[in-house]
């Protein structure tokens, strides 16, 4: 697990019905890097619209994401090429896991009630998949 998730994050904003620990600019940077696989400050700035953000602003955001452990970087000329450490899907799964874990820690009954309501809205195939996951987990736990 990357340091970002070990240390945790203090706030989540809901964007497009998904929780996100990123600020608006961080999220746009990550969207570009997840889509392209890598990028320099210049490339990200072009994607964002060069006149919208100063070079130093984009550089600072990318450096902070690097220091948080979300990005890795390699020297390229006078600057760096940045790469996401994990995929968007892995990141979203880790965020969801953290949200659920925090909910269960603070109010297990509220969390269970929320899941119960959500499960009722799922298609039958998804409910079966979840049921099988729980069955496998309980089988594995009883073997220990």
Task: Give a short overview.
By secondary structure, the chain is of the alpha+beta class. The chain has helices spanning 3-7, 24-36, 41-48, 55-67, 88-106, 108-121, 124-143; strands spanning 13-15, 18-20, 71-76, 79-84. It has 2 domains: 3-86, Winged helix-like DNA-binding domain superfamily/Winged helix DNA-binding domain (Arc Repressor Mutant, subunit A); 89-143.
Characterise the protein shown here:
With about 140 residues, the protein is of the alpha+beta class. About 65% of the residues lie in helices and about 10% in strands. The chain contains seven helices and four strands; from the N terminus they run H-E-E-H-H-H-E-E-H-H-H. The protein has a two-stranded antiparallel sheet. A two-stranded antiparallel ribbon has the order 3-4. Helix 3 (about 40-50) packs across helix 4 and helix 5 (about 90-105) crosses helix 6 (about 110-120). It starts with a helix and ends with a helix.
Map the helices and strands.
Elements: H1 3-7, E1 13-15, E2 18-20, H2 24-36, H3 41-48, H4 55-67, E3 71-76, E4 79-84, H5 88-106, H6 108-121, H7 124-143
Antiparallel strand pairs: 1-2, 3-4
User: Radius of gyration in whole Å, from Cα?
Assistant: 19 Å
pLDDT average, as an integer?
A: 85
Succession of helices and strands = HEEHHHEEHHH
Total strands: the figure is 4
| Residues in helices, as a percent range | 55-70%
Tell me the name of the CATH homologous superfamily of the largest domain: Winged helix-like DNA-binding domain superfamily/Winged helix DNA-binding domain
Largest beta-sheet details: 2 strands, antiparallel
Principal-axes shape call: elongated
- Outline the low-pLDDT stretches: none
End-to-end CA span = 24 Å
What is the number of domains?
2
CATH topology of the largest domain: Arc Repressor Mutant, subunit A
Widest β-sheet, arrangement of strands: 1-2
Q: How many DSSP H or I helices?
A: 7
CATH architecture of the largest domain: Orthogonal Bundle
* CATH class annotation of the largest domain: Mainly Alpha
Q: What structural class is derived from the secondary structure elements?
A: alpha+beta
Strand content: 5-15%
């Amino acid at each position: 697990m990357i340091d970002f998730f070990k240390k945790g994050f203090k706030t989540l904003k809901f964007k497009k019905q998904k929780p996100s620990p990123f600020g608006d600019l961080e999220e746009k940077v990550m969207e570009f890097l997840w889509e392209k696989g890598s990028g320099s400050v210049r490339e990200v700035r072009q994607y964002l619209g060069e006149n919208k953000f100063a070079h130093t602003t984009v550089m600072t955001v990318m450096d902070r994401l690097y220091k948080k452990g979300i990005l890795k970087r390699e020297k390229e000329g006078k600057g760096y090429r940045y790469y996401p450490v994990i995929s968007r899907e892995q990141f979203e799964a880790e965020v969801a896991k953290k949200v659920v874990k925090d909910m269960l820690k603070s109010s297990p009954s509220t969390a269970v009630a929320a899941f119960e309501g959500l499960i009722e809205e799922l298609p039958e195939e998804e409910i079966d998949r979840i049921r099988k996951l729980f069955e496998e987990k309980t089988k594995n736990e009883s073997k220990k």
